[in-house]
């Protein structure tokens, strides 16, 4: 039986959509609320290696503007640390099933979700 892991927050519309998508298809969902349990550096690094740091960063979000990141020049390591500390900086949801990863809820992410369903 297929199983997916969804990283998100309860207020994330995209994370709720991903959870609903998989539950409708009877795929077992392991939901990780990033407000309760932060993501480990290794988990986040897996997504960064596949998509790149900028693809994971929600540049349109309020947290990005509030952190002043549109004006600051920060190293990749520093930015990764900020993303670990503040999940609001991430483009959610982050979805993983085995080696298949997806970020966000755009068409490419939904195609990856469909690939995760047996």
Structural commentary:
The chain is an alpha+beta fold and 118 residues long. The chain has one domain: Glutaredoxin (3-Layer(aba) Sandwich), CATH 3.40.30. α1 links the parallel β1 and β2 (28-33). Strands 2-1-3-4 form a four-stranded mixed beta sheet, with helices on both faces. 44% of the residues lie in helices and 17% in strands. The protein is globular. The model has no long low-confidence stretch (mean pLDDT 89).
The largest sheet, given as strand count, sense and whether it forms a barrel, is: 4 strands, mixed
Distance between the termini: 8 Å
CATH architecture: 3-Layer(aba) Sandwich
Structural class: alpha+beta
Topology overview:
Elements: E1 3-8, H1 13-24, E2 28-33, H2 41-51, H3 53-56, H4 62-66, H5 76-85, E3 94-97, E4 100-103, H6 107-116
Parallel strand pairs: 1-2
Antiparallel strand pairs: 1-3, 3-4
Family: Belongs to the ArsC family.
Protein name: Arsenate reductase
Pfam family, one: ArsC
